[in-house]
Write a structure and sequence with these properties.
about 35% strand, about 20% helix, about 325 residues, single chain, alpha+beta, elongated, 10-stranded antiparallel beta sheet
Length: about 325
């Protein structure tokens, strides 16, 4: 994976090497001086270990840079379009095992943080910032800081306040079996072993009035960081049906948003499960909101909205 780290580092500072830069690139240039450390690197769903991230840094002085990954270092050149949305870089490897190779990159700079993305195998420019499994892409985040900040979760107090960067969502449903069938067969979740909540515990923490809970757990992906949807049907409870005519019909959490790598495959899964998209079906999202993406909305068995966001076809 070292060559991907190297290529992404070149992408990250490509905008520093050109003799002719536009105003957008000049503004970015001012933000790039100093030493940068890899915060995270995700390659098609696989994350670079923290110990490896600590060895990766980038030093920028003027228009020169030095990329280092342990004992390995590299340099390169680029062509960029900083006014595109998202911003684009064409990275040309100047030396090393990938000499002469061109990487088509998208990037964004937000203060002291840089995000860059490219495809691992195909010579195509990404349209979405993702490195999730199935995307075939590399997503890296770099942050300017001191030597110890190579891994944000361990070194940056502002980024280590939470033990997980994903949240679990608990949902009370009218028919647990029907809801599990919808989320697994129509959406693509996977069911893992659930758990039971004793009546006294539920009452002690204020979640129930003493009713027992049987939680069925569904996940997107693997590992502790996977999104978890916790479904529960509570016998004997006097449930109130939500007003789900539109997302603005009532207050509260109103929809789930799920990002899929293949929109056509997602639609095929929905069709096989007998689920029809709402309104006009799959609709392109405006470029000023999310360039290159499309949105499909469906309802679960209780009428709740579920958004599926995919690359445009």
């Amino acid at each position: 994976m070292m060559k991907w780290h190297f290529a992404m580092a070149l992408a990250a500072i490509g905008l520093l090497a050109a003799d002719s830069v536009d105003e957008a690139a000049k503004k970015d240039l001012e933000k790039w001086q100093g030493t940068w450390h890899a915060v995270s690197m995700e390659t098609n769903g696989k994350f670079t270990p923290v110990d490896q991230l600590k060895k990766i840094k980038l030093t920028v002085k003027g228009a020169d840079y030095h990329f280092q990954n342990g004992d390995f270092s590299e340099h390169g050149t680029y062509k960029f379009q900083a006014t595109k949305n998202p911003r684009q870089l064409d990275i040309v490897v100047g030396e090393g095992i990938d000499k002469g190779k061109v990487y088509l990159v998208i990037y964004k700079v937000e203060g002291d943080e840089l995000t860059i993305c490219l495809e691992t195998a195909n010579p195509k420019r990404p349209t979405v910032f993702t490195g999730r499994a199935g995307s075939g892409q590399v997503l890296e985040v770099w942050r300017r800081g001191q030597e110890k900040s190579g891994a944000a979760a361990e070194s940056n107090p502002a980024r280590s306040e939470f033990a997980k960067s994903t949240i679990d969502l608990g949902t009370v449903v009218g028919d647990a079996a029907r809801s599990v069938k919808f989320y697994t067969e129509a959406i693509g979740f996977k069911e893992i072993p659930g758990f039971a909540v004793a009546p006294d515990f539920g009452a002690d923490v204020g979640l129930t009035d003493g009713k027992p809970l049987a939680i069925r757990v569904l996940v997107l992906g693997d590992g502790d960081a996977a999104t978890r949807l916790k479904l529960m049907q509570v016998p004997g409870a006097q449930n109130k049906t939500s007003d789900n005519a539109y997302i603005h019909s009532q207050l509260g959490f109103r929809y789930l948003t799920i990002y899929v790598a293949d929109g056509e495959a997602a639609l095929a899964r929905l069709k096989k499960a007998g689920v029809k998209p709402l309104a006009k079906g799959t609709v392109p999202i405006p470029d000023n909101i999310a360039p290159g993406l499309a949105l499909t909305v469906v309802r679960d068995p209780d009428g709740n909205f579920v958004e599926l966001i995919s690359p445009r076809r």
